[in-house]
Write a structure and sequence with these properties.
It holds the Pfam family SET. By secondary structure, the protein is of the alpha+beta class. It has eleven helices and 17 strands.
Length: about 400
C-alpha cells in the first residue's frame, strides 16, 4: 500500500509487513486530545466512543515540584491512605515501541499537529533524555516518559507493543521500591494511579520504570538508558553486604515459584505439614516488606488465606482475607475490595474487602480435612486491582 497524504502531509507509512497510520483517539469529552501512531489493523478494533474517565480527587492529592538531581517530581499534597486514588490521566500520545525505520522522524512529528495547543505544551514540557540528532522529538519524549498500555490486536497481526505518554503520571520518578501502581482502562482510554501503601504529606510519589526484581547492577544498567544512576533508598545502600542481601531477596522473590511449594500441590498432599504454605509465604511477605515492594503481597496473601480455608480455619481465613483486602484495596469507604462469603456448614461469615471476583463457598465434604474444602476453594483467586507500569524505552 502506498503512503497516504492528508492536506499535503503524509499519514501512512510502511515498515516491512506493517502499515502504520496516524489517528486520534475517540475522545469527545472535555478538551483532551490524543494522537496515535498505530499499526493499521488495530484502528478498527478501538472503541468508536470512549467512556468518560472517573473523576480524580478534588482538591488534588499531589503536586509537582523540584526533586533535586531528578528534575521535577510528584509529591503527596496530603496524607494518602493505601488503596486511595491519586489521579486519573489520559495519554497525549500513543506510539509503537521498537520501530526503527527511515520514516520514524516524519511519522512521530506528524502527531504534534493532531493534539490541542494546551496538550502540545504539556507534552513538550516533559523530559527528553534522547539526543535530537538520533531521535525525533516526540519519540524521544515518548521513550523517556511513556508507559506500556494494552491495545486490541488482531490475532493475525504482527505483535506490537505500545506506550502512552501521560502528562501527569510522567511526573512520578523511578524508585526500586514501590508506593504506587497504575491501572489502565481501555474503555475510557485513561490510567488511574493508586497508592500501594500509606504515603505521607510531602513524600515523593514513585513509579517503576524497569523490572525491580533484578539485582542492583542490572537495574542500574537498565536505567542508564534514561541518563541517570539510580540512587533510590533501595540502591544507595551502605556496603556490599547490604547490596548482596537485597539482591538475594529480590532474586528469591523473582524465582519463588521454582524454589518454594505451591498451594495446589500442597493442598492435594495430606503428608505435607499443615503450615507449609503459610510459613513459606510469610517469609515472602517479610522479604517484600524488607525491599519495599508493596503490591507484590497479593499472591502470597492469597495462598495463606486459601491454606486456612482448605483446613476449615474460617477465623484465620477471614482475618487474612480482611488483611489482604486492606493491602490491596485500602480501608474505609474508598476501599475497592469485594466481599468473600464463607459458608462452613450452617454458619455464614464474611470477609469484607477481600479482593476477589467471586464468592468462596466452603462446604465440608468427606475425606481428609484439607480435601474436604478443596473443591469449593481452588476456583477462587484474588483479583489484583493494579498492574505494573513499565517504561516503554
Amino acid at each position: 500500500m502506498g503512503d497516504l497524504e492528508t492536506n499535503g502531509k503524509k499519514t501512512e507509512w510502511t515498515w516491512g509487513t506493517q502499515t502504520f497510520v496516524v489517528e486520534n483517539a475517540a475522545i469527545s469529552d472535555g478538551e483532551d486530545t490524543c494522537a496515535m501512531l498505530l499499526d493499521a489493523p488495530v484502528v478498527p478494533l478501538l472503541p468508536k466512543t470512549l467512556q468518560i474517565p472517573p473523576p480524580g480527587p478534588n482538591p488534588p492529592t499531589f503536586f509537582v515540584a523540584d526533586a533535586g538531581i531528578k528534575g521535577a517530581g510528584m509529591f503527596a499534597a496530603r496524607d494518602i491512605p493505601a488503596g486511595a486514588l491519586i489521579l486519573v490521566d489520559r495519554p497525549i500520545a500513543v506510539v509503537p515501541s521498537n520501530v526503527d525505520s527511515p520514516w520514524k522522524r516524519e511519522a512521530f512529528d506528524a502527531l504534534l499537529p493532531r493534539i490541542s495547543d494546551i496538550e502540545r505544551d504539556r507534552l513538550l514540557a516533559l523530559a527528553n533524555c534522547k539526543p535530537l540528532s538520533e531521535f525525533p522529538l516526540v519519540e524521544g519524549i515518548a521513550l523517556t516518559n511513556a508507559f506500556q498500555i494494552s491495545l486490541p490486536v488482531p490475532p493475525t497481526a504482527t505483535p506490537q507493543e505500545y506506550g502512552g505518554v501521560f502528562p501527569d503520571i510522567s511526573r512520578a520518578n523511578h524508585s526500586c521500591g514501590l508506593n504506587i501502581a497504575v491501572k489502565w482502562d481501555p474503555a475510557s482510554f485513561s490510567a488511574s494511579l493508586y497508592a500501594l501503601r500509606p504515603i505521607r504529606t510531602g513524600e515523593e510519589i514513585f513509579n517503576q520504570y524497569i523490572d525491580v526484581l533484578a539485582p542492583r547492577a542490572d537495574r542500574r544498567a537498565q536505567l542508564a538508558r534514561y541518563g541517570f544512576t539510580c540512587m533510590c533508598a533501595h540502591c544507595d545502600l551502605p556496603d556490599a553486604a547490604a547490596v548482596a542481601r537485597s539482591d538475594a531477596a529480590r532474586t528469591e522473590l523473582r524465582d519463588w515459584r521454582h524454589l518454594h511449594p505451591r498451594f495446589l500441590p500442597w493442598s492435594l498432599d495430606a503428608c505435607r505439614a499443615d503450615d507449609t504454605i503459610i510459613v513459606s509465604n510469610r517469609r515472602a511477605l517479610a522479604l517484600i516488606e524488607q525491599e519495599g515492594l508493596y503490591g507484590m503481597q497479593v499472591p502470597f496473601m492469597e495462598e495463606i488465606a486459601l491454606s486456612y480455608a482448605v483446613m476449615g480455619d474460617e477465623a484465620r481465613f477471614l482475618r487474612v482475607g480482611a488483611e489482604g483486602g486492606r493491602v490491596v484495596c485500602g480501608a474505609g469507604p474508598a476501599a475497592r475490595g469485594r466481599v468473600c462469603a464463607v459458608d462452613c456448614g450452617s454458619e455464614e461469615l464474611q470477609a469484607v474487602g477481600l479482593a476477589g471476583e467471586a464468592e468462596v463457598d466452603i462446604r465440608p465434604a468427606e475425606g481428609p480435612c484439607r480435601l474436604r474444602y478443596l473443591d469449593s476453594v481452588v476456583a477462587y483467586r484474588f483479583k489484583p486491582l493494579f498492574s505494573s507500569s513499565i517504561k516503554l524505552c
